[in-house]
Inverse folding.
């Protein structure tokens, strides 16, 4: 028999679980509100659902936590938002081949489970944030064909030295400096693609 007190606890537990699941949905929906989506690829991103795992272009793990966002060549324009830093279990952020502008948000460096960060062929500007050096799980980093400027951060170059990255592509930007093909592990070598005009 369910007592009134146990019913209250059950309702409370369900409410807490819904809040946790929807936290990432809130973050993604906040991003949707800053995007122009002429092809309607984000039409399923409904903030009234319990979690975003039923949305198109979003993949979740068994705990209903977002692990992948696939929005490559989706015809989107707009910006990256700070709320993306809330996707703590994200492994793949694929937003290449769009018209995304503005800066690479520093909080993306909080996504320490990222394996692939593909922001190439957009209109991103500003510097590469040094916080990307926190992405110790990163294997693929493609930032090419944007309008990024400044130097490649030393913190990011540390990922090359550790031999974790498999591909680093920063070509076709307005960056200065170059990346050297040296690492401390000897058995892992990063494929580095950069502009030949970059100065050492």
């Amino acid at each position: 028999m369910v007592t009134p007190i146990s019913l209250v606890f059950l309702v409370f537990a369900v409410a807490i679980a819904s809040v946790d699941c929807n936290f990432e949905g809130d973050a993604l929906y906040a991003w949707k509100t800053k995007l122009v989506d002429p092809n309607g690829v984000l039409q399923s991103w409904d903030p009234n659902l319990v979690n975003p795992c039923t949305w198109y272009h979003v993949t979740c793990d068994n705990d209903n936590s977002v692990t992948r966002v696939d929005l490559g060549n989706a015809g989107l324009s707009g910006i990256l938002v700070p709320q993306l830093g809330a996707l703590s279990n994200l492994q793949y952020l694929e937003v290449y081949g769009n018209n995304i502008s503005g800066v690479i948000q520093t909080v993306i460096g909080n996504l320490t489970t990222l394996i692939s960060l593909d922001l190439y062929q957009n209109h991103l500007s500003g510097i590469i944030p040094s916080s990307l050096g926190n992405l110790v799980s990163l294997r693929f980093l493609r930032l090419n064909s944007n309008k990024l400027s400044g130097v490649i951060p030393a913190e990011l170059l540390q990922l090359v030295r550790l031999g974790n990255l498999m591909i680093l592509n920063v070509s076709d930007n307005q960056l200065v400096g170059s990346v050297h093909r040296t690492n401390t592990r000897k058995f892992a070598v990063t494929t580095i693609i950069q502009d030949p005009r970059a100065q050492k």
In short: The CA atoms of residues 67 and 89 lie 6 Å apart.
